[in-house]
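User: I want to check something. If I give you two sequences, will you return the structure for each one separately, not as a complex?

Assistant: Yes, each is folded on its own. Here is the first sequence with its structure:
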Amino acid sequence: MFFTAPMRYIKLIILDKDFQKTIDLLADFGWIEIKKNEEEKNLNLLSINEKIDKIEGIISEIHDFFDIKKSQKDGNLTDLEKIEEYFNNLFLKIKSYKEEIISLKEKKFELEKSINEIEQYKDLNITKNELDKFNFIHYTIGSSSQSDIEKLKNNMKGRLLYVEISKDLYLLITSKKGKWTLDSELKKINYKERSLNIENFLLPKKIYNKLTEESNILNNKLNKLNHIKKDILKKEFKLITKMTENFNLQKVYLDIFKKINHSGSTTIIEGWILKEKVVTMTEKLKEILGPCLAIVTYKPEEIEDVQKGKIKVPVNINNYWIFKPFEELIFNYGAPKYGTLDPTVIFAVTFLFLFGFMFGDIGQGLTIFLIGLILKIKKTKKLQNIAKIMQYAGISAMIFGYIYGSIFCFEQIHQIFTPINSFLFNLNRPYIINTSLTSGFDVVFNLVFITIGIGLFMNLFGILINIINNFLHNKYQEALFSRNGISGFILLLSIIILFINSLTFKFNINVFFLYLILLSIILILLKEPLYNIITHHKPLFHGGVGFWILHSIVELIEIILVTISNNLSFIRVSAFAITHALLSYIIIEISLKIGFFGFLIIIIGNAIIIGLEGLIVSIQTLRLEYYEFFSKFFVDKGIKFLPFKIEKNK
């Protein structure tokens, strides 16, 4: 719990024929991170790729034919040959129907196109052949507005006849001599000529009825085929989904097969596994493979690439259920280095403490707790950790709300808090820590001093973690003499003692601790030569004395600036606590002045504080954790352990 989980590097040597059931077991087991190499290029793998592509193409065609969505889930282990055989047989069964449906749909499309074209002429009670027989007239068919046609008629001065075929579609007739005049006038109006695409010897209405009848016949055929398609789908849907999901699993396994080592008829599976899981996995493998198995495990330090620093050992942290949600926030910043302290517990405690300190209110904390509870009940997987953290944060806010004597912005309610404090702590007041701004500036100064103290202790703890981590990895120079080592620890501890001493004894400075601070700074600056003297390394100054002096001056300035900024950053905790108290005070004052509708101001004000300030306080808490606390010991980050696991459809 307090250190990263011990890992082992494992090599499994199995027969090729046992590959799939081995990988299937590992996928169910879910506690081995399989090492993958670049995909091998050989004829065997190329044939597998071709088979996969072929099956995938058939599956896509089947889903398109039935117009169903392809499942992306992973099923269970089934021989690829069985999957291929099922989809091939199904495709052969539907192939003729598919081709016929496609053919009928193409014919239907062409028919509908013709029907739409002829529909506008169906009320024309004359054939094209009859129109063309007239030797002394000129006609044209086209679309235009009624007003433009009337204008055209007036301009033609009795030399134009028109027949309205359908809305805005007209048959215009004039003499052969009037053709030029008509064409000229048509250019002046909004007129679009239409071609008369109808059979010469049939009336348009007869053609329209004939095409409509053909379309109905096609629709009947399509409906029959669609009924057949639905019947097939009803029978096959579950099996199509099941086999598709099984194929999805096969693709995952074959992808692994292509990216791991093979030798002759054997396969070598390598990867990282938790030390505590080795025995369980070995027993399960022996159950399904018997003697056709060889297993070798190595400690991380026995791996040559680990020794040379070419690869990092993956990191897994495992905490009690109460701290589990905070692991995700740790990994958002980065994975701790393998073999170091797991900071989850310390992070969880300090995160909740800082949040509650800045957001102390019983009512608002209860609201956050209930929101987290609702999200948890909904069982949305992605939100489960956030929901739990919200619940914890709500409890922390309620605890500090009691300490501050605040409930839904109402502060220092004597009737509620004073009797409780009197009974529990013998305090005849409605608060334990006073944050009410009506009490004067002493409250502000007290909060500032408290939060600076919090920052000093958090940073001290961060340095202590770094010291332990460096000793664990034999980095004695950093552990002893660095700014975040023992020298830095003594420096900051001396500052803390002086800080407490100045508050307790009214700024009487203890000279001994000043000497300790000076000694710590000297040790940090002499880090390199001192360590080289102790370990008998030469030269004492790696880059020369001049470079060391320049580096020491820069480091001295950095020590001063970083020590000040790291600890003063925690003043923002008191600033947000005061802001929270100020907003609460303003909301109550406004509600009292409004009168009867003041309760609306209280509701809206609390909603704004919970939503907006709650988010800001969370961000500021993370900022202090990540940039002030984690920076002390998260120097060399590791990589997260990502075991191979497949959630199969049961």
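And separately, the second sequence with its own structure:
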Amino acid sequence: MAKQRQSKHKTPIQTQRDISPTELNAPLADNSKANKKLEWLIALVLLAVGIFQSIIYFDHKVVPNLDFPAFYSSGEALWSGTLPSNLKRAPVLGFMQVGLSHFVGGQTPGLTAGRIINAIFHPLCILLLWGIGKRLIGSAAIWVTLLALMNPWVIWLIPEPIAQPPMLFFMLAGFYLALKGSRWAYLFGALACMTRYDGGAILLAIGLYDLLTRKTTKEKLMTFVWGLIGFLPLMIWMLLTYLKWDDQGGEHYLKVMTGGDKGLWVAFTHNLKQAWDVAFSPLIYSPKDPTNASKLWILICQIIVGTSFFLSFIWACIKRNWIIVSLFVFLIPYFCVHAMMSFNYHKFHSASHWAILLICAYGIYTSWLFLNNKLSIPKWFTLTCQSLIGLGAILLIVYLAKQIPTISKLSQNSTLLTGVGLSAVVVICIARLIITKKEFLIRDLSGALIVAAMILSNQFVLVNIVGSGQRDIEFKLLADWYVKNAQSGEKLATTMPHIVRIFAPKASDEFSHTRFIRGKDINEFTQSCYKKNITYVAWDSRMGYYPQDIYYKRYGLQKIAPLYRPQDLGPYKYLTTMGTKFRHIHVFRLQDLASFQKEK
């Protein structure tokens, strides 16, 4: 009898020590059919939310990101059988967009094709992330996936036909296949790498995980072979870049990896702050004018995140969790590459924040299991803590819900999405409670309430990031104005001719970039305009009001700075202003030189 008692006591402790996927899904371990039903339900809920997002944000932003034409032009060159003149952008995205555009109608088939690609990949990314998360934190992965799914920068990129959304899909697909032991992982890793160069970091993670989990020497040697094959397209592309280096200009990524004017350390800390802003800041509500209490709250959260991140690495090494170790191998070079760039944007972290969330969640979960095992925490204490956390989440939900109507006008779609996200939490929570027969009622309810509070908190960042979709719309309005008012052969100078061409494709040859019109000041610029037969000059506030911006200097916009006022200036006859209350464009007609001199 004593031996039987001893055996019963050892089994659960050993299970906790291993932290296996079976233990992580312990509530359903005794009912595999119920487990499968729940997983199918969760997959359908995640897929439905992802498809809903793809639909409502498909063309939410009228004017695409300014990098889109560069990717697309690379694809056009490849489809025509030639190399792009500029190899700054990796070729996969443009190649896909141009290929799909042949089957898409409308005025802007390339733009529509890019958005279709994102709309298809986005829901699939969600399922892949959930599949990866289950291997680390079991049933709790649904909450991490849902929070990543609602991330403002991920949603902001849904209508943007640029590299980050497809690269994210290829990275997640590659890593997921690596966890399944499939060599096809290297294909998706290579596609991620050739969609955007920083995606190559996932190939390092795939190769390391493959190497550490293979059993025989032959399999381990083949890992190096497959890794070399995965990097081969990038090596060929870099060789071509080297051979055409003189044609790449001064803006190639390899030429701006200096950390900027302020040095690498400042760039590193700035990049770290951006990573926090993307991964965690939306989940922790903070007023625009934070009080000392809210600053303390943010500091506490940062300490918790930093500690869990560090502990995750420690636990991964101790328990030989090669998934977490591989995520670190992906995350560290990915982060360092961007820290070395002379410019940093939050969108860069949209493709890596999922790894940060999983790493921190693993650190918290594993630390809790360890403490519970070593200290034998009483059940009443655990239930009390869970109840207090749930109560605090309820109070926060009530507080945040009262403020939602005041910001909903900034982005109607985003407000609707929050309701869908909260509905998903309710459906998943009810399903879990029914299938687990309320065995973990307090735990599941408190977890669901915390996620619901985070989704509401996320709304305050989301509406500002996504907005109404009118950002840069002044350039579409400029294209519409030109089509309606300009005569055939009349040329227009603007800082964004590549964007104007998207909406006025038949007149694409009539648009010139102000940077290629020589002149140190307005007088020299005017003479150059006469030589190039420029009829219209557009001054835009997008960069015109920011003389310290790097592109203001590169484009030499000081030469048209006097046109910031909507009034006649010398030979420049003011015609109209278009845009929104935040940004606008002034359009001037450059009078014929002989007529102007005679009039003068």
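Because they were folded independently, the notes below concern the second chain alone. The beta strands are 491-494, 511-513, 534-540, 572-579, 584-590. The CA atoms of residues 57 and 159 lie 6 Å apart.
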